[in-house]
Amino acid sequence: MPTAVEFARGEYPRFLDELKALLRIPSVSTLPEHKGDVRRAAEVLVAELKRIGMENVRLIEGSGHPLVYADWLHAAGKPTCLCYGHYDVQPPDPLDEWLTPPFEPTERNGNLFARGAVDDKGQMYMQVKALESLFKAHTGKLPLNVRVILEGEEEVGGESIAKFVREHPEQLKADFALVSDTEMFAPELPTLCVGLRGMIYTEIEARGAKNDVHSGMYGGAAPNPFVALAQIIAQLKDKDGRILIPGFYDKVQAPSKDELKAWKSLPFDEEHYRLNEVGSVQLTGEPGYSVIERTWARPTLDVHGMPGGFIGAGAKTVIPAKAVAKVSMRLVPDMTPKEAFQQYKSYVESIKPAGVELDVRLIHSGDAIVIGTDNPYIKAATKALKQVWNKDTVFIRSGGSIPIVGDFERHLKIPTVMMGFGLPDDNLHAPNEKFHLANFYRGIESIITFFEELGK
Amino acid sequence: MPTAVEFARGEYPRFLDELKALLRIPSVSTLPEHKGDVRRAAEVLVAELKRIGMENVRLIEGSGHPLVYADWLHAAGKPTCLCYGHYDVQPPDPLDEWLTPPFEPTERNGNLFARGAVDDKGQMYMQVKALESLFKAHTGKLPLNVRVILEGEEEVGGESIAKFVREHPEQLKADFALVSDTEMFAPELPTLCVGLRGMIYTEIEARGAKNDVHSGMYGGAAPNPFVALAQIIAQLKDKDGRILIPGFYDKVQAPSKDELKAWKSLPFDEEHYRLNEVGSVQLTGEPGYSVIERTWARPTLDVHGMPGGFIGAGAKTVIPAKAVAKVSMRLVPDMTPKEAFQQYKSYVESIKPAGVELDVRLIHSGDAIVIGTDNPYIKAATKALKQVWNKDTVFIRSGGSIPIVGDFERHLKIPTVMMGFGLPDDNLHAPNEKFHLANFYRGIESIITFFEELGK
């Protein structure tokens, strides 16, 4: 009888075909026209979890996209893992920058290109396929207890799962969570993520004249909402990237000396990163901090879009009645989204330019997280990764936000193992998103080995 | 036999029906999908000019939308008028703010609502109907010589007509031009516009990372083009609205003492204007100048839209690879578009934020104009207006730009009579554009009377 890893290795072509089918579903959670597609992706997962042997498989309906739940709880005396992933994806725009269509998964140079390939359908599916392999090799049983909770709103703030975790913690009772939605620090370098930045995503709406007016007739008298927003944004950060919101840095905890030392030993070259990952003429951010510190351990502020006015080709000489800036901030321990938003809102209102009215709105938020490396689940994960990858694990943080990890900590009182296999050039949230296929396969093997280690 | 004015009065219902038909054609010159509609509007005008008795009526084809030409040159010894108007219109967006559809002309409270009602189809059509009435009353003749030149690119920079005027001045030889594309200072106040601001319409494109990147992973390292544009825009004007481009004000000519005195006597209340025309909580612009001075005699700078990034509903955490700001400046005598753009471009490049590359583009431009009030055409127009409106004419300037007036001055060496009948609340370039129907009718009578005065 083959081991679980051996079983998986024999089935990779089928696993890949199944993943491609899932990636063909354009489950873009932020766009109302894709609501049916998001549900379709959930239903595919329900069917698959049932097929492999999971129990109590069901959709949990709420006001938004459904959650997918499943469990298998017959490994008496063994720990319980809560497997988490998300089946929704970011919008694919700008479409014209994709080399192949975002929802037609395409293999090139050992990579699978598609929206959601790595974030997070591919990584979520590693867990499903690890469970299938374990059932097959362990005669219909798993080496530990497992609950699965998958969501379809991660890219739009994760309200439904947050509500469910908050209101029904007993239904998700577990000893730890496994989240596969992070990346490896470098190819071939097994990585556990033990820190995440939090975030607040906001909109500032500026309103001037009651109607759009002509910039010839009214230029010099009517307030211009874009100019007002520009003046506000220019006062949110100084030219070096330091955020100017009063009190914003007060709660920021510096990383420990050990962490900083470990980060310095990581294989990271800022010039290589600038040229190959970012591709800009220069990197930006606070002076005196390395790129790793700036993206993992410092709060940052970005503008994502400025809807309003005329954005077509050519010239329309309008002073728009209103304009919006989509502004988000990444937070680090021990900042809280609530306090950060209050500080931001008060400050924006205090620098309101003359002539406009402002509406400062919180769209969604998530807590910053740091996980201790001394818990037994992190230790078992480290051991499993060593076995599969034949290398010592590096502990990193991520600049991104996975708000659910904070919810697991707060409401379920459990730590999360963030074991992910994305690569730095996987183009998350961007055109030509991909997943390195070798990482899809070894990710499955890593999860199998991790679960077998915990079941010993 | 009825006089021309009497003839017109008998035909107003038909004139209005014809105007409505013209307004139903969505001749939006900036949108490629309306190219056919723009041509259709031109063809309707060709047919109508032929029908009323004009000669040599034809389309003049170029690389853009066609010009419409017509003439009648048999009034020996009388002056020649060059009638100008434009049959293209601004885009109608935002569509959801129109009370009735922009291309379904609708009468409400004595006004005709439609895109182009006043700018400029309605005003252009006053000229056509004045000519028809004169032909009818003068037994197939006109009291003076007339050339008509109509364009379909006024809202996109007017390249074709500028080229034609520059290259074929002999084909447009005239003693003065009549442009009906301006407004009355107040209802019932006959007005001649004797000054226009010039303009430069530009785009600043800022480019950071080579691709869109995730603001979690890269926030703190990747340059943000929107933040860069905001920093630039915030340095273009100070908080009081004074433009910070070095040298920008050097050539600005202050209005004469007489002009300033006349402007002060106009019926204008800044608080009424703020409340009823602009509707903002406060007016903006340079301290120390009245609204009239700021909008007629001072250069200004506005931002019209900032394409790029994510502008949909909800949250997409992207740092876009590029973003654009559409920025225009209004110019006054003796500024020149060429020098103003050079000063602007140099300054923008000199304040380029770290990490981004910039492309500063001129989209189009027009000269600022001041016309002397002592020429015979302005005097005849004043006399005609007194007769029709029974009030003395006020001489105003306009904050808007009609670049063709500068071209007529430069290449044809003729002055322009800007006799317009728009009202300040006509919503030019905005939703619910309208034309006051009484002004459409009395505009026709004013042009008839003006031409008869010159033919005496």
TrEMBL record, chains A, B:
GO terms for biological process: proteolysis. Keywords: Hydrolase, Metal-binding, Protease. Residues 194-354 form the Peptidase M20 dimerisation domain. GO terms for molecular function: metal ion binding; peptidase activity. InterPro entries: Cyt/Met_Dipeptidase (IPR051458), Peptidase_M20 (IPR002933), Peptidase_M20_dimer (IPR011650). The keyword Electron transport does not apply. It comes from the Bacteria. It holds the Pfam family M20_dimer. This is Dipeptidase. It comes from Alloacidobacterium dinghuense.
